[in-house]
Specification:
Growth Hormone, Chain: A; globular; transmembrane helix; MFS transporter; MFS_trans_sf; transport; MFS_dom
């Protein structure tokens, strides 16, 4: 932590890292409403074009924790710029792609940019005044969800006004501007000395690939197929090997002792479940409203109109994400996380059972967005406060990564349910969407219950504040977690 008198303008640093985070999060969803356009233009099938999404999730899931850990050891500023450079390179390649294999490679390179999230959290923790850490982390966390919703809203106007190539030109420019500004204005953070073990990184990559590929492809392969079951079994074996390698490594990629802290594992489990709901909603609400009314449901909307259905989600996420920190200071992080999960549950319940009118969908997505903003901002702050400063990058990186894994699970399960029964026209039956969204209701209910397991705030206990002050765990007047947990 640098001396307060020499600290650069925190507002400038915050603006720079926010721009980089937005460039990354936009790419999570810009392609979702226009997959059919990719399918036609790249001359491929509906099955193959889904890899445009799958490869991105795989790459981001692998590189988010790795880049966060490298940033802790090599310097967060340098690795933040490197992540943005990879993001920009992937965007350039995607914008110029004329075939599916090139597009898939480009999306894999873009996934390296997942490192911007844990690195942004780490920079905030290292460089901001203690009293501003919780609020800044909360806003960045909320922006990760806002960017996802904004991508779906903006995709239609960009494609209609220009073409789909601009879905990548715009984030590329944002990434380059953020990288250049980071070099000029963001200070280098303290480093955690030591070498990163190679084997845990390889095993982490292997088990994530073995897990996410069958979850993404199970609707096509079949949940009982040999490929699906074989890869899931391999994922379990590789994950066990990864745990053993991490425990034996002198400088582990992920400190599993840290991950067992009550304040960390509860927030991570909530992140997983919220990721299930958020990504499934992003992927299937547009499909639902784009369905022609002749199917007995849906509204026959175009890309732009379907994106606007999720505009309340984006606005609600930003609104509550911006006020989550002061609410947590007054009410406690556990209560805010619980309320956020309940609001999200209410929104998904409306999607499942009250979706006959357009206004009902606007209310449902808005309610869901309000809940996501509260929950994402709060659980990120909980994780940051629950670990020592030198572990901020990897801890927050795993939280973001677990959310991505949850998104892959939610999208795969939702796809399997929605496409299980088709009408003679080939369109899904309405009951598929109803059952699918009802499953998401269950996930949100479990998230709310897990939120109640988060450790109570300890801000009113002076001896606890004194014991943890040197680690910088006091933020916005609230202390969450305890070393003994």
């Amino acid at each position: 932590m640098i001396d307060e008198a020499q600290r650069p303008n925190a507002a400038v640093t915050f603006s720079v890292i926010t721009l980089g985070v937005m460039a990354y999060t936009l790419l999570q969803s810009l392609v979702v409403p226009v997959l059919h356009t990719f399918q036609v233009d790249l001359h491929t099938s509906q099955t193959n074009v889904t890899w445009v999404l799958t490869v991105y999730l795989l790459s981001a899931s692998i590189f988010t924790p790795i880049m966060g850990r490298i940033g802790d050891a090599a310097g967060k500023k340098k690795v933040f710029v490197l992540s943005l450079a990879a993001l920009a390179a992937g965007c350039l390649l995607a914008a110029l792609a004329t075939s599916l294999p090139v597009m898939i490679i480009a999306r894999a390179v873009q996934g390296v940019g997942g490192g911007v999230l844990p690195l942004a959290f780490g920079i905030i923790r290292d460089e901001f005044p203690k009293e501003r850490v919780a609020g800044a982390v909360g806003v960045i966390a909320a922006m990760s969800a806002v960017g996802g919703g904004a991508g779906i809203v903006l995709a239609g106007p960009i494609v209609d006004g220009l073409n789909y190539h601009w879905l990548f030109w715009v984030p590329m420019v944002m990434a380059l501007l953020s990288a250049g500004a980071a070099l000029l204005f963001v200070p280098e953070s303290p480093r955690l000395p030591g070498r990163i073990s190679l084997l845990p990184g390889l095993l982490l990559s292997a088990w994530l690939v073995a897990l996410l590929v069958p979850l993404s492809e199970a609707s096509e392969w079949g949940w009982a197929s040999g490929r699906t079951i074989g890869l899931l079994v391999a994922a379990v074996v590789l994950a066990g090997s990864w745990v053993v390698s991490e425990q034996r490594a002198s400088m582990p990629l992920i400190d599993l002792t840290m991950m067992r802290r009550r304040g960390v594992w509860t927030a991570n489990l909530v992140a997983l479940l919220l990721g299930v709901g958020m990504y499934a909603a992003f992927g299937f609400v547009p499909q639902f409203v784009q369905t022609p009314s002749s199917a007995g449901y849906g509204f026959g909307m175009d890309i732009t109109q379907s994106g606007l259905i999720l505009l309340p989600l984006t606005a609600g996420t930003f609104l509550t994400g911006s006020v989550a920190a002061p609410l947590a200071e007054r009410l406690g992080g556990r209560i805010v996380l619980f309320v956020g999960s309940l609001l999200g549950l209410g929104g998904v319940a409306m999607l499942a059972w009250t979706h006959d009118e357009q206004w009902e969908l606007y209310v449902a997505t808005g309610l869901f967005g309000l809940g996501l903003g509260l929950a994402y901002a709060t659980m990120s702050s909980l994780v940051v406060r629950a670990v020592p400063a030198e572990q901020t990058g990897v801890a927050s990186g795993m939280n973001a990564n677990i959310r991505t894994i949850g998104g892959s699970i939610g999208s795969a399960v939702m796809a399997s349910i929605v496409t299980a029964k088709l009408q003679p026209s080939g369109l899904p039956k309405e009951s598929g969407y109803t059952v699918g969204f009802a499953v998401l209701v269950g996930a949100m209910l479990v998230a709310a219950l897990v939120a109640l397991l988060v450790p109570r705030d300890e801000a009113d206990e002076p001896e606890v504040i004194l014991r943890h002050a040197e680690l910088g765990l006091v933020a916005a007047g609230t202390l969450v977690g305890d070393e003994s947990e």
